[in-house]
Amino acid sequence: MSASGGTKAIVAALGANLAIAASKFVAFAFSGSSSMLAEGVHSLADSGNQALLLVGGKKAKREATPQHPFGYGRERYIYAFLVSIVLFSIGGMFAIYEGYEKITHPHDLEHWYWPVGVLTFAIIAESFSFRTAIQESNALRGQLSWKEFVRRAKAPELPVVLLEDFGALIGLILALGGVGLSVLTGDGIWDGIGTVCIGVLLVLIALVLAAETKSLLLGEAAGIEEVKKIEDAIVDGDTVTRIIHMRTLHLGPEELLVAAKIAVAHEDTAAEVASAIDAAEARIRAAVPPTRATPPARRR
Fold first, then answer.
1. pTM of this structure
2. N or C: which end of the chain has fewer CB within 10 A?
3. What is the pLDDT of residues 183-194, one digit of tens each?
4. CB of 21 within 8 A of CB of 37?
5. CA-to-CA separations, 142 to 6, 113, 154, 160, 172, in angstroms, rounded
6. Is residue 155 within 8 Å of residue 254, measured between CB atoms?
């Protein structure tokens, strides 16, 4: 993922969420709607999440040190994992609690036009943010489905923003449905039910984010297509005859470590073997640009 593409999507989402959060809290103050309170906290949590992603992206750019010789690329994964925790604890659990309170102690909505107007505005603003995330993702996902893109993406920012924006839009529709049913039926319990549904949705999204970022934190290999390109680049059929075994590991979204044990021609001299290894490394870097190749072990 290009840094500019991810940053653009994050900034767009941050601006939208801050504006939406402010409007939701105003609507809550006038109407007393639990859906609006839950949605306000949700948007505030999302704003904090986007701030975390920006911080993680900045910290990941630090140069390697003797203590961290492979750099700090994985910091982006750590901050993405923190996002899932924030979304679960602040957004999801708070909404479920608030919805339960409203169901057990329902009360009529006051000035219902405030939450309806704010939710309509929020849906429009969130749609623009979601559209930006989709455009930035389309430039990278190629022929992958959206599910495959979220699961395979090594850069966490765009999948996180995509899921957040998608969850926000569905949550806004649920909130609008809860408020609308409360107004039509005169029963405030529907507002509480809508709030609980928002909380469950956020918890599910947080669990998906946690599972995907956990996998990245543990260390993921290169994708199937990248592995094939690397294998084709290593074996030239002349000095490098085959790959005995190979391991790949993403050190960060844009840095890939490759370690390979290769077989070389029996009659080659040490100088020719060293030259073959250098040539193989150059071919790997050309085939998969974000690659850091270790000197391959050789076997005659």
1. 0.74
2. C
3. 888 888 998 898
4. no
5. 16, 43, 14, 18, 30
6. yes
